[in-house]
Write a structure and sequence with these properties.
By secondary structure, the protein is α+β, with helices and mostly antiparallel strands. It has helices spanning about 1-10, 60-70, 80-85, 110-125, 130-150, 155-165, 180-185, 190-200, 215-225, 275-285, 290-300, 330-340, 345, 350-370, 370-385, 390-400, 405-415, and strands at about 20-25, 30-35, 40-45, 90-95, 100-110, 205-210, 245-255, 260-265, 305-310, 315-325, 420-425, 440.
């Protein structure tokens, strides 16, 4: 009956979901959606802590701590988290951003109690497994991950661009991966303090999606009942009130072509202009028939790749253009990309362009509902954004309300010189970066 009802509901509203919200006595928010079309369960738990919350001397620790969460807790030996879950047929992963840290798993329904035990133990009793050897081990792992990532072609692009875009003092100025000095200098007392400050039930939202039964809330309550309510997490920085400094930077890389990023600081996630900026990027770049891709690639040989996209954190956002070519100089790429972008001021997007962009956004949103792990992530994000895990229809309405005139307006409002930076990425030994660019050094 549940499946038939859900399918009928979804037929009327493609964004329909059926997640329920519960709050445990210790403050942990639990989002539940029962679906017996699968024999698996997806679990996603997100903590309101990211690199923006690091104290001086802790740059890189939010990510390093993500690693420590798998190293053992009071009742789970070192490395047993992965071993036990994988032995039960499950898998898990995690990520850290400037704003959040998330842990997610997918496992057979029969492993539900194991997964809940593992998550509750590291939330409530991680200090029982925090020791100096574990910390030292993960410091080395993170430093190696940083070195290997930066050694990859384009591995330093994003962190270099962010360092240019967000000035010193901005919560996003230092990359999530952190600095070598701070990672090497982290001490066990800092690890314990970090866990005590941020890993609290009131600072977490957990979603369970899939083959769970009507007693699942009782099961969750049982496993988290001994996790103490330690109160709210510390107050976080809510906004950036400083200004921006236009800049041109460059890095050299092990590539055989030149690439150029042009980026503008725009708006944080949830801002009323976020949907219009997203749609403007999609009008620019989404395959043949879009303005930037046609001008730079399909209808010319000015570049062999191009893209336009947005990135929106809780404090700030970016609108980014990129093109790459083995022969076109960055100055020419810059001129051509900006010419195409600002063509919207003279020729606003047509009805056809708007419909295509909306269709693309809708497809991405619907695709994200198909997998149970991404569905759980959506519920958590929706709850954080709206206080309602079933928010996709509401979110979609933000996009359908955008007009062609709105795309012109946001281009005029946010894509202005005082918010603009560029990053040239050129082969080692090449001197064809934008004139006046400064070498970007990541600490």
């Amino acid at each position: 009956m549940f499946v038939l009802t859900t399918l009928a509901f979804a037929a009327d509203d493609p964004f329909a979901t059926n997640a329920a919200v519960h709050t445990l006595d210790n403050g942990l928010v639990v989002l539940l959606e029962e679906d017996h079309r699968t024999d698996s369960v997806a679990l996603n738990v997100r903590y309101g802590v990211g690199s923006r919350d690091e104290l001086p001397g802790e740059k890189g620790f939010a990510h390093c701590f993500e690693h420590l969460m798998f190293e053992g807790s009071e009742n789970v030996p070192n490395n047993a988290f992965d071993e036990w879950l994988e032995a039960a047929g499950g898998w898990n992963n995690a990520w850290t951003s400037e704003d959040d840290t998330a842990y997610h798993e997918v496992f057979p329904a029969g492993a539900l109690e194991l997964a809940l035990f593992l998550e509750s133990d590291r939330l409530g009793f991680l200090d029982g497994g925090l020791d100096a050897p574990n910390l030292e081990n993960q410091q080395l792992v993170v430093l190696q991950e940083r070195a290997e990532g930066y050694a990859e072609p384009h591995g330093r692009d994003w962190d270099s661009l962010s360092r240019l875009q967000f000035p010193e003092g901005h919560p996003y100025h230092i990359s999530v991966i952190g600095t070598i000095e701070d990672i090497e200098g982290l001490e066990l007392s800092q690890a314990t303090s970090f866990w005590e400050r941020w890993y609290r039930p009131q600072n977490a939202v957990m979603a369970l999606v899939g083959n769970v039964d009507e007693d699942v809330l009782d099961t969750v309550t049982h496993w988290f009942s001994d996790v103490e309510d330690t109160g709210p997490a510390p107050q976080r920085a809510e906004a950036w009130t400083g200004g921006y400094t236009p800049a041109d930077g460059y890095i050299t890389d092990a590539i055989d072509y030149r690439a150029l990023y042009i980026s503008w600081a725009t708006v944080p996630h949830g801002h009323p202009d976020e949907p219009a900026l997203d749609l403007l990027a999609t009008v620019m770049s989404n395959g043949r028939g879009t303005r930037l891709d046609d001008a730079m690639y399909y209808d010319s040989n000015k570049a062999f790749f191009s893209a336009a996209f947005t990135s929106n954190g809780d404090i700030d956002g970016q609108f980014i253009l990129i093109s790459g070519s083995p022969k076109t100089k960055p100055k020419k790429l810059e001129k051509e990309m900006e010419k195409v972008l600002f063509s919207v001021l003279e020729t606003p997007p047509s009805d056809e362009e708007m419909a295509r962009a909306l269709s693309s956004v809708k497809a991405v949103m619907l695709d994200s509902l198909e997998r149970y792990d991404s569905r759980a992530d959506i519920f958590v994000q929706c709850y954080l954004d709206y206080g309602d895990p079933n928010c996709l229809a509401q979110d979609w309405a933000r996009y359908t309300a955008v007009t062609s005139d709105d795309l012109v307006r946001v281009a005029e409002t946010w894509l202005v010189p005082e918010r603009r930076v560029t990053l040239s990425v050129v082969p080692h030994g090449d001197k064809k970066m934008l004139k006046g660019s400064n070498d970007v050094v990541l600490p």
